[in-house]
Amino acid sequence: MPASELGWPRAVSRETVTPPSSPPISAADAPTSTEGTTTGSLEGAGDHRSTTVERESGPGVAVRGTESGPAEAGSSERTTDDTEERAAIAASIPGADAMTPLAQAVAADARKRITLSGRTVPRPSRTRVLTVANQKGGVGKTTTTVNIAAALAQAGSTVLVIDLDPQGNASTALGIDHHSEVPSIYDVLVEGEPLADVVQACPDIPRLLCAPATIDLAGAEIELVSLVARETRLQKAVAAYVEQRAASEDQLDYVLVDCPPSLGLLTVNAFVAATEVFIPIQCEYYALEGLSQLLKNIEMIRNHLNPSLHVSTILLTMFDARTRLSAQVADEVRTHFSEQTLRATVPRSVRISEAPSHGETVMTYDPNSSGALSYLEAAVELAERGVRAQTTEESA
What we know:
37% of the residues lie in helices and 19% in strands. The chain is α/β, with parallel strands linked by helices.
């Protein structure tokens, strides 16, 4: 299975790390040389903190990107995957009790950074089309879509984001123009234009593409009513674009469709176009109520329009480890959807909220933040689960 190294943004030098709070490494395990140190800002849930991270190279250490850019797959600097060694180092970081939540957050970020640095991310054997949906608003659909897409693209995959929300927030976060004169997904759905004619490249992240939404999309719900095969128009456009890319030997790895918070014709088109549903769930009670209704609607789509549609991924967002409510909602979701729910959770983070105002995702705005590390962790898990599922299907 093809794989690519986990690439970090150019502004960040990310290598295998040993946080200062961890116990010293024995002489047998110590690296042979030390290049220097760098300081990264760790930020989450409105807290401001910093930690010093050592940059090392030597036996068993995979060196990641430097100031000149992330290391490419197959680079001479890359050594064997040292997952177990990094996991052991992460596990050795001292814990903190509930009375010191800031120390807990810093330790958790350090563990994530050590575990993720040097990881390889597998690419799927065929294009995965995921609809990111939840009928409840404000649960992090758009934020999840753009940051998961950015993380996967940084890891070497080719990703297309389709902005199906008339507000166009996903287009804004990716730095894509989406004023009324710009060719958009509206032209694909209503006018029948090829998807290739409206796709734009994200200016900050290579291999990340976007089909933007303009305000014209607000009227598409009404205009689609009178059109023939109105529920399958996006599915046909996506299938044609995926085939076109495959024929040019530039395969799309992922298509992520950002839906509006409703079950209108736009969302129905997204469900018909996809094979997987990716559900972000806010860790609050109302989100559980919305989930049950969403599952009923997905089952309806399965029965009448798209038999291959299924819920493959659930991500817990806006998780606050300090509150019992977040823990209770997480336990409830994991109890009923143990196979679909990712181990990774996304905390409340100021940096995640600030990034769109700069026309960026948090992956490029502040890659050191707890929010960026959490989305990166979720993206790696999403990729690995998908490859395992495809391998199982192909061997069956």
